[in-house]
Design goal:
This protein has helices at residues 16-19, 21-26, 53-56, 61-69, 78-88, 125-135, 153-156, 158-176, 198-211, 270-282, 301-317; strands spanning 28-32, 43-44, 47-48, 92-98, 139-145, 180-184, 216-217, 231-232, 247-253, 286-291, 336-341, 344-349, 356-359, 365-371, 377-383, 386-391, 401-408. With 418 residues, the chain is of the alpha/beta class. The structure holds ligand H79. Residues 51-52, 56, 184, 235, 251, 258 line the site of ligand H79.
Length: 418
């Protein structure tokens, strides 16, 4: 059976299709970068950096460890964060369990470089987030950095480091049952004698799948080949045109930085975010949109306003995104993006006009159309290489107005011999 666009083409084990189904329907998720780097608020002396601040600003470990000991996210409100994601139309959350600084956000037994033992913070934020997410039908995943600056064994004794890394992953998967593992730092250059190899990736993938066959993983578990993990991870870049040979999820900052930086208030507009989300959906790809909480665990007004704006749009127009994907159409119109879910097309129109032409070289017939969230009718007529949509009214949404169209597809001719 030929894979449909949006399917995971690289079936490297029997479960990959069902494992990734929720992920391929979700389309929109929340990324959270949270760790002791937040305490610096993006600045060390005159040096400005964020989750890379330890390394890029040459902070001595003594200073970084002292700072991390003051990390007290007392205002972290898992339920509020989950509600924020839910309101935005996001279906999953991925939080940093350990970034490159090696600091574990859960009470790991593998070392004391963690929020409970090092910072003396007794709450388990990952547990709180898991419980709030589960109660609200949101999936929870963990980011985990393979690269670790803090553990000397990463450079001195790589096999010993890998053993500890696996022990941490065993804790995470066994104790929190994450829906997804988001690996990063597989490209680390600080370990020239033991660069992360294709073999390391395959071994780690077997390891996590043995604990949880259902856990979805990104391709940075290995060397980002098509066979590594379940999906590709373009960073700060929109995924390419379909059909791609692997599921795709673009991760993106909501301002310019991943972790919290007090000076970074360059928030993307809801209009821009919706445009990116529709673009990715039209290509069968996901958007993982990041927030970076403050050191006390709060989400800033700029971040929540951007998410809220997207959420307001999603309330009326979410049908064009959630569960939707690639249309089978060739190319995209100049006025917006087109997505598809079953026998519906969604025309996400950024530049409204009295005639919207859809160039359509696929064998389906448009039988009717309407504006989402509006009683305003839209007539449709065959025109040139496709259809003209003729809305009777103006745009109803300042971000993007969505026309939902009914389509019928002819029964495909039988292929081969019967
Ligand atoms: O977790 C986020 C980033 O910290 C991480 N991946 C996302 C999801 C990431 N690591 N590396 N990169 C992204 C790209 C590398 C950028 C670099 Fe640099 C340029 C590394 C050194 C110079 C970024 C900019 C870090 C310091 C300056």
């Amino acid at each position: 059976v030929a894979a449909a666009p949006g399917d995971n083409y690289v079936v490297d084990d029997a479960l990959s299709g069902t494992r990734t189904r929720w992920f391929d329907e979700a389309r929109f998720g929340m990324f959270i970068h949270f760790g002791p780097y937040a305490v610096y608020q993006g600045q060390y002396g005159t040096c400005r950096e964020v989750e890379w601040i330890k390394r890029q600003c040459n902070i001595p470990w003594s200073d970084y460890e002292a700072k991390a000991a003051t990390f007290r996210p007392t205002s972290f409100d898992a339920n509020a964060i989950v509600q924020m994601a839910k309101q935005a139309g996001q279906k999953y959350i991925v939080i940093t369990s350990k970034h490159h600084d090696g600091f574990a956000m859960w009470p790991t037994s593998v070392n004391r470089w963690n929020l409970r033992d090092h910072s003396g913070f007794s709450r388990d934020l990952l547990r709180e987030l898991k419980d709030a997410a589960t109660a609200n039908g949101i999936k929870l995943g963990f980011y985990y950095s393979i690269w670790d600056w803090h553990d000397p064994d990463f450079v001195a004794n790589f096999p010993a480091y890998v053993t500890k890394m696996k022990a941490q992953l065993q804790e995470l998967v066994t104790n929190y049952d994450p829906a997804l593992l988001w690996f990063d730092g597989e490209w680390a250059e600080t370990n020239p004698t033991n660069p992360w190899s294709e073999q390391n990736g395959e071994d780690l993938e077997r390891f996590v799948r043995a604990i949880s066959p259902q856990v979805v993983t990104n391709n940075r578990i290995g060397k980002r080949r098509l066979v590594d993990g379940d999906y590709g991870t373009p960073e700060q870049a929109l995924a390419g045109s379909p059909p791609s040979a692997q599921l795709q999820e673009t991760c993106m900052t909501i301002n310019n930085t991943w972790g919290y930086a007090a000076w970074d208030t360059n928030f993307k507009s809801p209009t821009q975010l919706v445009r990116d989300l529709a673009h990715l959906t039209s290509n069968g790809a996901n958007l993982l949109l990041n927030i970076g909480p403050t050191p006390t665990g709060t989400v800033t007004a700029g971040q929540s306003a951007a998410l809220n704006g997207v959420g307001t749009w999603m309330t009326t127009n979410g049908a064009a995104i959630t569960g939707a994907g690639y249309t089978g159409l060739v190319g995209q119109p100049t006025w917006g993006k087109v997505t598809r879910k079953g026998n519906k097309l969604y025309l996400v129109v950024n530049n409204w006009a009295t005639t919207l032409h859809l160039s359509q070289r696929s064998p389906f017939t448009v039988t009717g159309a309407r504006v989402l969230g509006s009683a305003s009718p839209v007539s449709v007529r065959p025109s040139g290489d496709g259809y003209d949509f003729l809305p009777s009214g103006g745009a109803t949404n300042v971000i993007a107005t969505v026309i939902e169209a009914d389509i019928t597809t002819p029964t495909p001719a039988a292929v081969g011999t019967g």
